[in-house]
Amino acid sequence: MNQRALSRAIRTTFMQLKRNTQKKYTATKLPIHPRDAHFMEQLELNPGMSPQDLALKNDIDKAYITRRVRELEQRGFISRSPNPDDHRRVHLALTEAGAEVMTRGLTLMEESEAMVFAKLTEAELLTLYGLLKKCVCDKN
Predict the structure, then answer these.
(1) Cα 56 off chain centre by
(2) In sequence order, which residues have a C-beta less than 8 Å from that of residue 21 and are 6 or more positions away?
(3) CB contact at 8 A, 22 and 66
(4) What angle is formed at CA 18 by the lines to CA 13 and CA 21, rounded to 5 degrees?
(5) What residues does each domain of the chain span?
(6) Which DSSP state fits 91?
(7) What 3-state DSSP class applies to 84?
(8) Would the CA dihedral through 37, 39, 40, 42 be positive or negative?
(9) Which residues contact 39 (CB under 8 A, 6 or more apart)?
(10) Which residues on adjacent β-strands are paired with residue 90?
(11) Which residue, of 33, 114, 131, 133, has the greatest Cβ tally within 10 A?
């Protein structure tokens, strides 16, 4: 197999996913970015995460996560509470408004993914799922 052709197919697929998702977010005027929905989902799945935990889990700069957390908190989508074991750290949690907007955002992402992968059979989707998990070591 030609590595360049594989690379192009991967880039094209991810770019199409990104475009589809962004169009859906814009059309519905969803007040968050797709990456925020992903971060918020991680908070839902891992209650009590700190901004540092979120940065480590996503291999993203801590300063960037701190800015995103601050903005999401100002908009009422997440809340902070002191860590009882370490007063220098905080726990993050979704608010009701955050859970609602996250669910809407994840639904839009799933619709975008369904459009891109619509031609795949159930067996092919299962294979793709296994390959993607293998590639990222199921980190997220």
Answers:
(1) 14
(2) 34, 108, 109, 112
(3) no
(4) 120
(5) 3-135
(6) E
(7) coil
(8) positive
(9) 54, 58, 65, 68, 72
(10) 82
(11) 33
**pLDDT confidence bin for 139, thresholds 50/70/90:** low
Query: Could you tell me how far CA 132 lies from the centroid of its own chain?
Result: 15
Q: Alpha carbon of 106 to those of 34, 61, 63: distances in Å?
A: 8, 23, 25
Please give the CATH architecture assigned to the domain spanning 3-135: Orthogonal Bundle (1.10)
> Distance (Å, rounded) from C-alpha 36 to C-alpha 131?
25
pTM: 0.87
Alpha carbon distance 97, 87 (integer Å): 27
Please state, as a whole number, how many other Cβ atoms lie within 10 Å of the Cβ of residue 109: 18
Q: In angstroms, rounded to a whole number, what is the distance separating the alpha carbons of residues 1 and 9?
A: 12
Q: What is the DSSP letter of 80?
A: E
Give the contacts of 98 (CB within 8 A, at least 6 positions apart): 40, 72, 76, 77, 78
Q: pLDDT (tens digit, 9 = 90+) per residue, 99-132?
A: 999 999 999 999 999 999 999 999 999 999 999 9
